[in-house]
Structure of SnoaL-like domain-containing protein:
Amino acid sequence: MADQREAKSALVHVKASSGRASTAGRVAVTRAERNVGKDASFPQSSALTALMACERQAGLPTQEYPMKQLFSRALLLVMLLAPMAAFAQTAVTANPNHQKLLIGSNWSETANKRLVYDFWRIVFEAGQVQYAPMYMDKNYIQHNPNVANGRDAFIAFLTAFVPPTPVQPRVQLPLVAITADGDLVTLVSVRTLPDPRDPSKTYTTTWFDMFRIEKGLIKEHWDPDTIAGRANTGGQ
């Protein structure tokens, strides 16, 4: 009875993964479900049949497992197969209600959000670098590996890539959220990238730009950019 219960428990987990792995895995699970509990010899072989079918479809080596290892092996298979389903995740979408995003939990956080929002809208997106001193500290600290420290270095970098354009009333970045925590403000945005499995398609993920405010000016900046990823930068 203990072996049968363990086989049934293992099948529950194998069934969840086999549905993502292959038709063979689903057939094996169905067969196992019909036979588990009918006799004392079948539970172990049926659960293993389903498990090994899923493993083969996942490109994993199969082997004989003692019954005491079956349940933990099934759980491991579920974890290994989980990334296969990740590509079906819900797409990241922007929040169009910027006014709501700009509301902080207190007046200070609201002011900090507005400072970063207007900096992004006027200086970063529109390339109106003459207004940078209104938003950025002269000794601006930059953690993006592609840009040097200092406001002047930021202006030089932006000027090379962003020609001046008319300032828009709203940030054009597809914002998901604007968060504020004390002196920190983070712009969370949608990032769209080419699908490496099919260049004709794209997928969405999330980008962030975090700023530290000091004495009413942006003092420091972080984002997840890399040197190799410069061409695909979602923020700075």
Summary: Helices lie at 2-21, 23-35, 42-57, 67-86, 98-101, 107-125, 132-135, 151-161. The chain has two domains: 2-86, 98-232. The first helix runs from residue 2 to 21. Residues 98-232 form a domain with the Nuclear Transport Factor 2; Chain: A, fold (CATH 3.10.450.50).
